[in-house]
Design brief:
With 158 residues, this protein is an alpha+beta fold. The chain has a single domain, classed as Thiol Ester Dehydrase, Chain A (Roll). Helices cover 20% and strands 39% of the residues. The protein contains three helices and eight strands. Strands 1-2-6-7-8-4 form a six-stranded antiparallel β-sheet. Strand 1 and strand 2 (39-45) form a beta hairpin. It starts with a helix and ends with a strand. The mean pLDDT is 91.
Length: 158
C-alpha cells in the first residue's frame, strides 16, 4: 500500500467501516466518539484532506447536513451490530430548518457532530435532532455551529 493511501486510511476510525457503508471519498466523518441505541457523536477533521475542502475557506457549512446524516447512520449500524434491527437502507428524506452560524467550517478545526433519535414512526421513518459544534475536551465549548432535525426513511432489505 502506498504511503499516501496508508495516511488516508489512518484518517478514519476502523469502527466507521463496521457501522456504516460509506467509504472515502464520501465517508465524511473521521471518528466515532460515542454510539448507543438512541444517540451518537462523531469527530470531523476540517483540513486539506477533507472532502469538499476549499483552500483558504474550509468546508462549506451545508456539508454539515451530510455530517449529521452519517453520524445518525452510526445509530442504525450499532443497532444492527447488536441484533436489535434487521438490515435496511436509510435514505435522508430531508431536514427541518438546517441552521448554521457560519458559511464555512474553518480550516484546522475539529467538529463534534451529535445526533439523538427523536422519534420512530413504525419501522419506516425516524427523526433525529443533530448539532455541530467545535470539538474540545469540555462538555460544551461553544454555541452550536449548526443544528437540524433530520427525517430518514428506512427501507427493509429483502
Amino acid at each position: 500500500m502506498s504511503e499516501e493511501k496508508q495516511k488516508k486510511n489512518n484518517r478514519f476510525d476502523p469502527l466507521l467501516f463496521e457501522l456504516i457503508p460509506h467509504r472515502p471519498p464520501m465517508l465524511l466523518i473521521n471518528k466515532v466518539l460515542e454510539v448507543d441505541e438512541r444517540s451518537s457523536s462523531s469527530l470531523v477533521y476540517v483540513d486539506e484532506q477533507a472532502s469538499f475542502f476549499e483552500p483558504g475557506m474550509g468546508v462549506p457549512a451545508w456539508i454539515g447536513l451530510e455530517y449529521m446524516g452519517q453520524t445518525a447512520a452510526l445509530i442504525a449500524g450499532h443497532q444492527l451490530k447488536k441484533g436489535l434491527i434487521e438490515p435496511h437502507l436509510g435514505f435522508l428524506l430531508g431536514t427541518r430548518s438546517y441552521k448554521s452560524t457560519c458559511d464555512f467550517f474553518a480550516e484546522g478545526t475539529k467538529l463534534k457532530i451529535s445526533c439523538k433519535e427523536k422519534a420512530l414512526v413504525g419501522d419506516d421513518l425516524a427523526t433525529f435532532d443533530c448539532v455541530i459544534e467545535y470539538y474540545c475536551d469540555k462538555a460544551q465549548c461553544s454555541e452550536p455551529l449548526a443544528q437540524a432535525s433530520l427525517s430518514v426513511f428506512r427501507r427493509q432489505s429483502h
